Amino acid sequence: MTFEETVTYIRDNHKIPHRITKEIWEGLQELSPEFFERYYLALEVRRQIKECNSLLRTQGIKMLKDGQFDIATAPPAVMNLLNQILSEELANTPCKPLF
User: Which Pfam families does this entry report, sorted A to Z (predicted)?
Assistant: First the structure.
């Protein structure tokens, strides 16, 4: 969780104000700088993985729409991903009445 996600969770579930959470967070950062260095690195890696997955998804959709990707020859892992993407795309496509 990011700092913002943590603050929101603590506020919503435990009714602890942002100010108190921020003070404790800052104190913990001073006491454990090595932990927070690894923590912020892990958050950055998480962000980069999400961005990479988003870009791959966009590229996959474009390749499918342009006919540049042969689904029949895709490995099982790619097929599963494509099925997920296509299911999401279909779920987000408005239906037109048949009659």
Answer: A_thal_3526
DSSP string for the chain: --HHHHHHHHHHHH---HHHHHHHHHHHHHH-HHHHHHHHHHHHHHHHHHHHHHHHHHHHHHHHHTT-S-GGG--HHHHHHHHHHHHHHHHTSPPPP--
Q: How many domains is the chain partitioned into structurally?
A: 1
Give the model confidence (pLDDT) of 22-75 as tens digits: 999 999 999 999 999 999 999 999 999 999 988 988 887 788 777 777 777 778
Domain-located, residue 99: no
For the stretch 73-87, pLDDT in tens is 778 887 787 777 777
Answer whether residue 54 is part of any domain.
Answer: yes
Q: What does the pLDDT read at residue 60?
A: 77
84 belongs to a structural domain: yes
Task: Supply the range of the domain harboring residue 64.
Answer: 3-91
Q: How many CA atoms lie within 13 A of 69 on its CB side?
A: 14
